[in-house]
Write a structure and sequence with these properties.
By secondary structure, the chain is of the alpha/beta class. Helix content is 38%, strand content 10%. The chain is built from 14 helices and seven strands. Strands 5-4-3-2-1-7-6 form a seven-stranded parallel β-sheet. It is globular.
């Protein structure tokens, strides 16, 4: 296959420097994962089985719950006995109904962010918008309130670009739960025509309804030709929109599949890529809210500033993960970090956005160089 032509990257993305990635959904109800090293570090130390069972990603709660002996399983038995993950979906729908999107966009803009990316559907398959194509395998597994649309409007009103994250590679309503190895994760990608059509319909719906400035797929996409067609249609609809590399990571690496930017995760920087890049990581050890995290588990305000400086000085963007509680409130520890970043950016934003800062060696502590497997 011929290498896809590289599109010129729009100036808005190159100039943005800082974005916010919001993980929000049913997993925000239990809000728990064991705090510890990244999945990659855990896999290196103890193997992938241990890494999946002990992942610090709270948004993987449903999969962790399916693994015998996991910390999430023990936590669930102690705190949520008698409840199913379906119950968390119902509780999330109720809790999120009173959410005010400006309670996010105001501190995000103050912190110097130029774009916001929302998890419109994570691996649990729950849609944050009233989709015309709900999953056929779980009743009422979507938000009656258009959370995606409300955030898109509020973001643009605040001068922020809006992006849509979509988990094309995993949807546990179609099976695959109990992922306990890297091979099992690849095998869990639904390959049926039913799911291919389901995912395609969702992405087309998101593009048609919200015209996202960023189309941020995760894990993979079940069919390469469909993904190619979706990206082409997206670029036709949103000429200045950008697409990440996770529709087909191997295809992008081989020069066989198009992508506008790479997405290293909790990774050393600069990454080994010739693509423009965006480092994504949470303020703490999880992307989704994790009530088990303490102050010591989050980057301090100083560490966060140093991380942003290093990313920008090395030519990348920082996509900082924020995990709201189920009711949409930003936990105090995360809000404090956003406030510290806002105070620093109030004085130094020009240097960041004009890329006037240059360094040659990392300035932040090694704990911010974690590299988990996927958002």
């Amino acid at each position: 296959m011929d290498s896809p032509d590289r599109r010129p990257l729009p100036d808005w993305w190159s100039d943005a420097k800082l974005g916010i990635l919001v993980h929000w959904g049913p997993s925000s109800v239990p809000a728990f994962a064991p705090v510890g090293p990244s999945p990659f570090a855990l896999a290196e130390m103890h193997g992938w089985g241990h890494a999946f069972a002990h992942t610090p990603y709270a948004e993987w709660y449903e999969n962790s719950l399916a693994l015998d002996g996991s910390p999430v399983g023990r936590h669930h038995a102690e705190h949520h006995a008698g409840e199913t993950y379906d119950d968390f979906g119902r509780r999330f729908r109720t809790a999120s109904d009173g959410w005010d999107p400006t309670s996010w966009t105001t501190p995000f803009a103050a912190a110097g962010a130029r774009y916001v990316v929302l998890t419109t559907k994570h691996h649990d398959g729950f849609c944050l918008w009233p989709t015309a194509r709900p999953t056929p395998h779980r009743a009422d597994w979507w938000s009656e309130r258009d959370l995606v649309g409300d955030l898109a409007v509020a973001s643009r009103d605040a001068g922020l670009r809006f992006g849509a994250y979509y988990s094309g590679g995993l949807d546990w309503t179609f099976g695959g739960l109990g992922i306990d190895s890297f091979e099992a994760m690849i095998a869990a990608i639904p390959r049926s025509e039913e799911y291919r059509s389901h995912a395609e319909s969702h992405v087309r719906e998101l593009v048609d309804r919200y015209r996202p400035d960023v189309l941020w797929n995760d894990i993979h996409f079940p069919d390469r030709s469909t993904a190619m067609a979706l990206i082409e249609a997206y670029h036709d609809a949103v000429p200045e929109g950008v697409v990440n590399d996770r529709f087909d990571l191997r295809g992008v690496a081989r020069g066989e599949f198009p992508a506008d930017f790479a997405t290293p995760e909790y990774a050393d920087i600069p990454p080994d890529t010739d693509l423009p890049w965006e480092l994504c990581r949470g303020i703490g050890t999880s992307f989704g809210v994790n009530d088990a995290e303490t102050d010591a588990d989050l980057l301090s305000g100083r560490e966060l500033v140093h991380l942003l400086i290093e990313v920008v000085s090395r030519g990348g963007n920082l996509l900082l993960g924020v995990g709201p509680s189920a009711d949409g409130s930003i936990p105090d520890l995360q809000a404090q970090r956003l406030g510290a970043l806002a105070a620093w950016m109030d004085v130094n934003a020009e240097a960041i956005h004009l890329s006037l800062i240059h360094i040659s060696e990392p300035t932040r502590p090694s704990k911010s160089s974690r590299m988990p497997s996927s958002a």
